[in-house]
Amino acid sequence: xxxxxxxxxxxxxxxxxxxxxxxxxxxxxxxxxxxxxxxxxxxxxxxxxxxxxxxxxxxxxxxxxxxxxxxxxxxxxxxxxxxxxxxxxxxxxxxxxxxxxxxxxxxxxxxxxxxxxxxxxxxxxxxxxxxxxxxxxxxxxxxxxxxxxxxxxxxxxxxxxxxxxxxxxxxxxxxxxxxxxxxxxxxxxxxxxxxxxxxxxxxxxxxxxxxxxxxxxxxxxxxxxxxxxxxxxxxxxxxxxxxxxxxxxxxxxxxxxxxxxxxxxxxxxxxxxxxxxxxxxxxxxxxxxxxxxxxxxxxxxxxxxxxxxxxxxxxxxxxxxxxxxxxxxxxxxxxxxxxxxxxxxxxxxxxxxxxxxxxxxxxxxxxxxxxxxxxxxxxxxxxxxxxxxxxxxxxxxxxxxxxxxxxxxxxxxxxxxxxxxxxxxxxxxxxxxxxxxxxxxxxxxxxxxxxxxxxxxxxxxxxxxxxxxxxxxx
Length: 474
Prior knowledge:
Order of helices and strands: HHHHHHHHEHEEEEEHEHHHEHHHH
Shape: elongated
CATH topology of the largest domain: Nucleotidyltransferase, domain 5
Structural class: alpha/beta
Helix content: 40-55%
CATH class of the largest domain: Alpha Beta
Largest sheet: 6 strands, mixed
């Protein structure tokens, strides 16, 4: 008998083989074949036909090329595998499922309901009582001529000259909050960083990708009822270790269709349940509580958010062309400005413009009360907001299951945002943002004049149709 001497290369090869095993997914037929080999060798071992030394499962693993632990798990599920019917092409089961699958896919597309392999498997189990894996559904869909794809929508406005300048300046300001440029210090912020945003999720939320026939027609998906979600994630250093989490008490969700409760004497208005769509009043109420919580837990922090209208309500309204002449006169009188009452409206507007001072936003004033600084992310750049990735992770989890009503959706959202989204998820999302910031910050390195682009309201006045996009309070 020739002995096999273990070497370092053999050890590495074994580790690589085990790693491949964890990635590979065996079909039901392959699993049944392994169980058949196990039964046969075990019977031969008992009859004395062969003599396998050492651990029996290890010897079986060498024969079939799998790890002993994997074979052990297959043995535990052996009864279920035995009861499972054949799923090969041309089998009666596949024929029965195919007669249901193609019409179902076309029906879902006709009503605008995208279908993933997981959704189809669940629907098939409910309709036909056939329990198959996602892999089998994908194989059947391809055999029926369907393909899995989604429509991409690219935003070209992000490459406008004034937005590129603002983006570069923003990224360099973000880099200034890092403790270093290399190693672990590159990821550690000097001041805690808070990323906030709001989103929504519909009861009928599904993946944007679906199984469909090439060049086929399909309707827009039915959205159904929705939940509004708002939250803020903090990245900070504690005990010399980089940490990330939801700001305590910041994660809120509510049904905008629910009417507000009656105000009670023992419950202040800002602590009542949220209701209605996200607007400036709702956001500022939530933002004040979030700033207070962040100040108590992390101290003075940098807050990063986009420039939507609910975030940038002016602390003082400034005259516009929509104002009436009497309103312009009242505004000038409140500023103790002397003017001729006979002045026309265009003249009054010109005088008002000369009296305008730097605009202040309510959110910036709230943040300053707690020692925070507010930075506005560049428009059309969700890749610079790690919380956008967090929303995507949670919604992808939601899209993998079917929700019959709002209650089921609310429970699933809470599970996805608090369990599926972990500290590792937050740090990974921010790590990708840091890499993107490094790439964008190199855009104007060779031009000293463009390096000094100010983050002023005039620079960004036209970067969004309804808001100014570039007032950064630093």
